[in-house]
Records
---
Amino acid sequence: MATTDYDIVIAGGGMTGSLLALALAQISSAADSYRIALIEAIPLKTSHPAFDGRALALADGTVTSLQQLGVWDVLKNLAHPIKKIHVSEKGHAARVHISSDEYALDALGHVLELAPAGFAIQSKLVGYKQIDFLCPDKVEDLALEEDLIRVRLSGEKTISTRLLISAEGVTSALRSKLSLPIEKHDFKQNALITTIYVDKPTRDQAWERFTPEGPIALLPLGKDCFSLVWCHHPELSNSLMSLPPNDFLQQLQQSFGFHAGRFVRHTERAIYPLSLQYLPQSIYHRVVLLGNAAHQLHPVAGQGFNLAMRDIMALQDVLGNADDPGAYSVLRNYRESRKLDQATTIGFTSALASLFTEQYSSLLLPRQIGLMLMNNIPFLKRQFVKQALGHF
Ligand SMILES: Cc1cc2nc3c(=O)[nH]c(=O)nc-3n(C[C@H](O)[C@H](O)[C@H](O)COP(=O)(O)OP(=O)(O)OC[C@H]3O[C@@H](n4cnc5c(N)ncnc54)[C@H](O)[C@@H]3O)c2cc1C
């Protein structure tokens, strides 16, 4: 086998790339572990596109994986538990209540603030001598050979590797360079996010409320504040962005109601355009695409990063027994092991997004029946909760 500078090069040090580097660094003993380069374009300073004002709902299964990677000890103090979830539709009676007690769990999941999480994860990365963290640097180009890939970095340096992983996010340059076909669906919606303070305790409860304008999610971030994800048509979200703070709070209160208390103030607002993008084939010759580079989902069910985490753990598993980490048989095993979960999660999230956004008025009755059945038939509810918790 040809000699290479690295066994594995990861392009992109957001949540997916950084956690993947930690997962792969733990595969074997220090003596024969993989030599890994993690390349990130933007240094972590006060603001970073991958570690911004968003808060992620981490499913219970994701928390277990983070514990296995030894990173939960630095993340748990930045995370808030979700013990109850309340799902409802504005103006209609049917609702679903889910409680951690019903499933004998301490929590259904946790809400993690991305900005401080970035620093905490990077503090773990420096502890591994088999990881070279090259930042700021960028993967500019690649040349494929039979046994290796040559990767040209922005500083004109070229490194060789057996396996190249793109965790570059939704605009992955490697995906474009390889001309990999991608499935796209524009939801014609934006997500508006901010932190909302309320006048009563959150009681560790998350809220998902569907309205004719789009879904509203409130995720508990602390004793008296929630992370808000409010999805609507881009025109409406642009006008909400420009409202003075009190008018914005009033609009939100009108749409959401008073179930979670009175909204008293909020932090800076930001918007994200929403689309479904996924690669039918997330492997190529000595290349794997992971995280948002492979699948970007609607945030309605909070599944995007949770799916990426399951991909990371599966890749750790198959690479654990590999002589050549870029060999086709190894990458094929990874792809086969992830097919069902990826298809189910993408299908589940898109169906939910479509049911509660694009076909809102035409599907009112089936939706109400669905919510009612789910709350009253334990089997249906368990299947839904299993998917949402990331238990496979
Ligand atoms: C509003 C909103 C709410 C969400 N809520 C949830 C939730 O509750 N639960 C959940 O599971 N998911 C949620 N998601 C999805 C989640 O945010 C993403 O799945 C996750 O952050 C993707 O991380 P990533 O590392 O794959 O990509 P990114 O965060 O985009 O990171 C990519 C990184 O690669 C770097 N990069 C790019 N190109 C190069 C290059 N050529 N060379 C080197 N570096 C490069 C970038 O600088 C960046 O740091 C939400 C998404 C949105 C928009």
---
Amino acid sequence: MKYHIDTIPVWDAVKSACDCPVCLMYKKIEDKSVEFFSGASVMEPDIRVQVNQKGFCSHHQQLLYAQKNRLGHALMMLSHATETLDKIKKLQSSSRVSGGSRFTLFGKGKGTADVCNDASVLSQISGSCIICDRIDDDFQSYLYTFIHLYKTDPAFPKALASTKGLCIPHASVLLGMAQNELNGEQYSALRSLLLEKISSNLEQTVADLDGFTRKFDYRNADQPWGNSRDANERAINLINGHCIGNIKTK
Ligand SMILES: [Zn+2]
Ligand SMILES: [Zn+2]
């Protein structure tokens, strides 16, 4: 697949002092997409058609709701819910034709296929998300640019070495991509760097989490917090990718 190469956002993320530059890139793309779908552009007919078709996942519904554009959000949902109602009506009328053993989940014959189709139509309605799809396109091209810079610009691996490293999900995605794009020597250097960073971050996090949990013992109430105040957030964001709190860039 051919990706658009835009090095500036990748360099910006790597130069920031955040816990995972890839989480930061993802967040920026996500913020931009959520803002787009909270603005006037969603009234454009072609965008409206796509929103009606795909809808939003629960995570992005929450982010749209938090934008507090109640009327814009409700207008999108009015249009999407109306189209969804059409899909449900079609599903209802298809069930009237099939009849017979359609409720036999594990049986053979026509009924089984109908039940599977019902499930897939319903899961498509609730599981697709236009924001996830948009993010994915941009995000893949940023990841590709990340690997491209690592491969072609000697300053990039050096800059990466002075970051705090990546979260585990993003190390996984990047190493997966790097396997096909880097030569053996480059891959092994990237692998060592990322695993070393994750390992030392985890060691620190484990020590801080231990300190955090000890503070709940009344006998340690007077002990200083040290670095343990945000230990739980850091552990979650390192292991699951950024999902708690704001991304700190300083
Ligand atoms: Zn990350
Ligand atoms: Zn989504």
